[in-house]
Amino acid sequence: MTVALAPERPVAAPRADLPILRERGQREVFCGLTGIVWLHRKIQDAFFLVVGSRTCAHLLQSAAGVMVFAEPRFGTAIIEERDLAGLADANEELDKVVRQLLARRPEIKLLFLVGSCPSEVIKLDLKRAAERLNGTHGGVRILNYSGSGIETTFTQGEDACLAALVPDMRAEAAEQLLIVGALPDIVEDQFRRLFAELGIARVESLPPRRAKDLPGIGPGTRFLLAQPFLGDTALALEKRGAVHLPALFPFGVEGTTAWLRAAADEFGISSAHFDAVVAPGRERARKAIARHAERLGGKSIFFMPDSQLEVPLARFLANELGMTITEIGTPYLHRSHLAAELAALPEGVQISEGQDVDRQLDRVRAARPDLTVCGLGLANPLEREGLSTKWAIELVFSPVHGFEQAGDLAELFARPLVRRDRLTV
User: Final residue of a domain: which of 272, 306, 321?
Assistant: First the structure.
């Protein structure tokens, strides 16, 4: 093995008139290792050590755009042929790699051992490895989670990572609001300022920017999910006594207002004060969105299943930009967390859960929507057929939450149509 550094709360009832098509077939998504690309930027003293193949290493370096001489906060402990053949003790090899890594990078305070398809194939127990290594490396917390491609979709890598942090959160009885999800720092700061203006005194984030700032948790903790794909994390938080505040997700004016209001209502903030605080940002967002309404209004859009962001994004595009939703494909439909989103969708919209690429492509070709949101592997073939596409993964990498980013979110969907119009002779 070598190292390549590089209590129950009421929720909105789901719409009974929404037809849900369940798909089971060939999938076309990235693996959960992709989440490292944004997680290693968020937790500034953490390191993500993937235990995997050279393909895993190439995926990460390509996705992150990291040059060979850079010092990123991730790397790959490469499983060689001798490891697969049982000619070397994989645990001893892993221990050696970790020693070398921590000697070279003493600033690391939190080390994630990230499982992959190859490590799972050889039955390498990374949970036990993390427990063993914690006993020999003082000053560094070592955790593990799976980023295997066997998972439903690539955003579950973040879910697995955050869920792995929850057992390490200290017991905390004080009342607090917890923002759950890896948001860009600038977006997180905007939300914190709004919550402070509302009068919510104590606001924490998961993940934290530094390992030492991992928040506490207990019965006084109320949490908002910033992302719809954090099902395991939410369950782990609830088991520790925290209470989920169900709401629309903070995309666009409608979603951001509802998300903020869920916290304001829970912490006893008056409606008058809430409106006074959010009104300026809400108005800026409306004006920013309006600039793209003429381009997007009336246009049809088809979501291929990819990131689990599809339902809230479709709600935003339909309700605030007047787009027609041809189909919303999503890898997994968490009905509890998405109850408010489902209730806010237009009547009769088609939803498909799971993936069968060939059948979905047939429906795309039959509908010929103005825009198709899909993975990188499908975008070029569809463009060749004359269909405009939007890379789904860009919606995960880009700052798109909150009032200040609402116009940017709308623009991400307008760009492919602008490009198509410019190329049309």
Answer: 272
Q: How far apart are CA 14 and CA 11, in angstroms?
A: 9
Strand pairing report for 20-24 and 2-5: unpaired
Q: Using alpha carbons only, what angle is made at residue 280 by residues 279 and 283, rounded to the nearest 5 degrees?
A: 80
pTM for the full model? 0.91
Classified as helix, coil or strand, 256 is helix
Q: Which residues of 304-322 are buried (b: 16+ CB within 10 A; e: fewer)?
A: bbbbbbbbbbbbbbbbbbe
The string of pLDDT tens digits covering residues 195-216 is 999 999 999 999 999 999 999 9
- Residues 126 and 191 reside in one and the same domain: no
Q: Which residue has the tokens 């491609």?
A: 149
What's the average model confidence in pLDDT over 57-85? 72
Q: In whole angstroms, give the CA distance from residue 9 to residue 262.
A: 12
H or E element, residue 301: strand 300-303
User: Which of 272, 304, 328 represents a domain boundary (last residue)?
Assistant: 272
Running DSSP on this structure, what letter comes out for residue 219? Answer: T
Torsion of CA 38, 41, 43, 47, to 10 degrees: 90
Backbone angles phi, psi at 16, to 5 degrees: -75, -20
Judge whether 4 lies within some domain.
Answer: no
Domain presence at residue 125: yes
As given in the structure block, the two tokens for residue 28 are: 């076309």
Strand-pair partners of 354: 23
Q: Tell me, yes or no, whether 287 and 398 share the same domain.
A: yes
Q: Which helix (H) or strand (E) holds 287?
A: helix 271-296
Question: Contact 158/229 with Cβ under 8 angstroms?
Answer: yes
Between CA 243 and CA 251, with CA 245 as vertex, the angle to 5 degrees is 145
CATH of the domain at 320: 3.40.50.1980
Asked whether residue 14 is assigned to any structural domain, the reply reads: no
Give mean pLDDT, residues 63-75.
69
Answer yes or no: is 110 within a domain.
yes
Residue range of the domain that includes 201:
179-272
* Domain total of the chain: 3
185 & 119 share domain = no
